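Checklist before submission:
- one chain only
- standard amino acids only
- sequence pasted in full

Submission:
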Amino acid sequence: MNKKVVIHFGPGKTGSSALQAWCNSNTETLAQHGIYYPAHAVDANGVSSGNVDAIANRDAKGNRTLDEKKLNTLLAEFERSDAQTLLLSSEFFFPMLRNIYEQLPDAVYVGYIRDPLELHESDYNQRVKLHSYFLPFHAPVASFPVVDALARVMDDCKGIDLRLRPYGKGLFIGGSIIADLLSELLSGKEQLELETAQSTKLVNSSYDYATREFKRLLNYFPIEHLELNIHRLLQKRPVEGSFVSVVPEKTQITANEAHVKRIEAFINNRRMQSLLPLLDALKQRAVKVYKNQDASEQALLDVVSWLAREDKALFEDIAEIVNAHRYYYLDNAAFWACFPEQDKPSKKKWWKREQVVATQTEVYASICTKSIATFEQRAQVSANVHPPHILASIGEFAFENGETRFADKLLSEALIKNPKQLLALRLINAVREQVRDGRD
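Returned file contents:
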């Protein structure tokens, strides 16, 4: 094949949605400049998986694998076309790079590298927005997993034409990721009028702090059937106070120092001078104001008041669910003020109203501190494993073995000692569901 194939592989949280939305809406314009971009479906927010389904299949677990038959069919279609460049884009190509390279060793592979701290928080924001994630932020922020993964790809795929671009405001050629990618595809007089890229709308924008905390706490409840509608509405809420972080200032500084060292070594060892602007940006990175994940009652009320004004019916559906699960544990009790207890029965026929149960569960005597110390000694528990984690771990063991009331006692005690204990938060409401249903 005398034509050119360009694979944009993301990775995740580097503007792939905006890029794909623009390309998908401008296939004719791209075709006029010799670029074939296969059209694909997008959701109501303009978000998609890109072109991955054009060359891959998905198994029962949702994992995607390269389909050579699909790929060859697409390549034959491209060969018959007048286009000189085939552009494929999907962040799902990232874990498939080795397999794609085996089939397309002469292709150009384009990816974007983002400030890792921003990436960690953006990924967290996405999980809260659309994947029912309710736990407080917890991530190895000093790591630089994307760079480490790409280094391994380069070792495994000798000769791969890997072109890495810095991601971030002020780092794109032409001022946007669309213009930046097009600069890799076209040059000189053939280059698209890059100002067309500036007209692209913001796709899959982040929530602000208060909106994200409201949605995170709401994710404790069984709202899966409403989640997409809730997300679409909250996405429209004006962003306020976005220059904040859930990572403490000192942690931001030490993590960023580690990132600078890692990207500097990668640039030098892999000859990736294209990433020098990112290195400079990291060296000058401003520290964001830290805000812990204990949003105030007023901040949460502001979000829910806005939601109720924008869509009263959706708010009532949410309130029904919250009211039916007042025995749940939340790591921020201020949330309950957003949904005062309801006394009036629902008028919705589809809603099977449950009996309202008091927020408080059974009152247990506290776990004896001496008992925990004895367990630590006998089990030779490491000194850096704290009592809340020990209690949560034993609670998990009790839950898995059908001792739900004992598990409830252990997990509740763990959360008294540390209201943000992740294992206990993950399990406590499932345990309380079973205790309430008498399944112990």
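Reviewer check: The CA atoms of residues 252 and 287 lie 7 Å apart.
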